[in-house]
Write a structure and sequence with these properties.
By secondary structure, this protein is mainly alpha-helical. The protein contains four helices and no strands. The chain is flat, with a radius of gyration of 21 Å.
């Protein structure tokens, strides 16, 4: 079964490599842009709300904002999963 999975991944990569267009990688990190919209809470990037950068839509500030959101979602899920009722009471698993 492991060989079947490895062959499937190999086929996927072989087909995917033929569809790569290096022109899509320029610019690799787009330049920062000011926040769009009317600036309410849901349209403003996380770092912009924290006062760490008003131009946090793209660029390095945007990358850090995305990383912070993913980290928060992952660690929040981990905290909820490890503190669930079955984990605290010895559970059945």
């Amino acid at each position: 079964m492991t060989m079947v999975k490895l062959v499937a991944i190999g086929i996927f990569l072989a087909i995917g490599v033929t569809h790569i267009d290096a022109a899509d990688w320029s610019p690799f990190i787009p330049a920062s842009q000011p926040v769009g919209g009317n600036g309410d809470m849901w349209e403003q990037p996380l770092l912009g709300r924290a006062g760490l950068g008003a131009d946090a839509t793209f660029g390095m500030a945007g990358i850090l904002t995305g990383g912070a959101i993913i980290f928060g979602a992952y660690s929040g899920f981990d905290i909820m999963a490890s503190n669930g009722p079955s984990a605290q009471q010895g559970g059945h698993g």
